[in-house]
Amino acid sequence: MKDCFRLIDETGLDVTEFILIGGGAKSEIWSQIICDVFGKRVSKPLVTDASFGSALLAGVGTGVFTDAMDAVQKCVKTEKELTPDAENHQK
């Protein structure tokens, strides 16, 4: 995951937050580890099933939403937000 983020970072995109989905998003410990390792805020949505993301992208493809950001803004509701622990991030 760190290598993937490094590649994204090299593109110059300003990533300020991660939105976790899938089984790992259900784990409070795993979510905080991701937050601390990357030093970025983490949002945990109410619905964490990967299929939800697939449905949103299908909506983009069929014109229900104008783009992925529109789909996220209209449909993704945040359950919890985590902030990185600076001390853990430095380790």
Word description of this protein:
The structure is a single chain. The chain has about 90 residues and is an alpha+beta fold. The protein has one domain (about 1-85). Helix content is about 50%, strand content about 15%. The chain contains 5 helices and 3 strands; from the N terminus they run αβαβααβα. The protein has helices at about 1-10, 30-40, 50-60, 70-75, 85-90, and strands at about 15-20, 40-45, 80. It has a 3-stranded mixed beta sheet, with helices on one face. α3 (about 50-60) packs across α4 (about 70-75). The protein starts with a helix and ends with a helix. About 5% of the residues are buried. The mean pLDDT is about 90.
Show the helix and strand layout.
Elements: H1 2-10, E1 17-19, H2 28-38, E2 41-45, H3 50-61, H4 68-75, E3 78-82, H5 86-90
Parallel strand pairs: 1-2
Antiparallel strand pairs: 2-3
Helix pairs in contact: 3-4
In short:
With 91 residues, the protein is an alpha+beta fold. The chain contains 5 helices and 3 strands; from the N terminus they run H-E-H-E-H-H-E-H.
Strand order of the largest sheet: 1-2-3
Low-confidence stretches: none
Q: Based on the structure, what is the oligomeric state of the protein chains?
A: single chain
Round the Cα radius of gyration to an integer and report it.
14 Å
Number of domains: 1
Give the ordered list of helices and strands. Answer: HEHEHHEH
Q: Beta-strand percentage?
A: 5-15%
